[in-house]
Amino acid sequence: xxxxxxxxxxxxxxxxxxxxxMVATCVIIVCSNIIGAGKVATIAGFSFGAGILFFPLSYVLxxxxxxxxxxxxxxxxxxxxxxxxxxAAAMAAFITAIPPDASxxxxxxxxxxxxxxxxxxxxxxxxxxxxxxAIWAGEMANAFVMAKMKVQSAGKALYQxxxxxxxxxxxxxxxxxxxxxxxxxxxxxxxxxxMLTNYLLKVGWEVLLTPFTxxxxxxxxxxxxxxxxxxxxxxxxxxxxx
Length: 242
Prior knowledge:
This protein has 242 residues and is mainly α. It has 9 helices and 4 strands.
């Protein structure tokens, strides 16, 4: 494994598993956005957004991407996840809106099939906007902090980078999503409670998954044969260049 901190050499390097990590990240983002964003669950007296159980995996993969492939490639994946979430939301909205066939729209006991479908997939534009904006901003913040900390620490103490970047990224995500999506719909007390609980759970997930992160990072670095440092990277988030 050799250190790679030159942008031109990095652009020419052929990675083996980058595309697979990109696909996994996009799948997690889309599923979390469609399935888990709008439900509040309670376990042992703690209220939290149900998506919290799976969405933090996207931050774990974000850490893996930045650590193994560098900020520019992580940024490209974030944009891909952003576009995937937008397409999934648009598709759900369109399919929900088109008129149902009468033979399909049967009564389910006080509610029609169309109404049940709309309850599951008919997300309001406000939630969609808040979700994709929060995902994009939070993931970008996570990747930026992760890359900067790696250069400053000379690649030491991976756990400090993964936890530190997640604390920043998840804070950005949480502060954007819940107020934009639910202010005026949920009570302010519930919003604050869910925000705080979700943030602590997200960071807690990152801590618990640290051994898994180490395992994946080390195996990917050995397979790819390089250790990437973002010394001359242009850190604008408004680019898809890798």
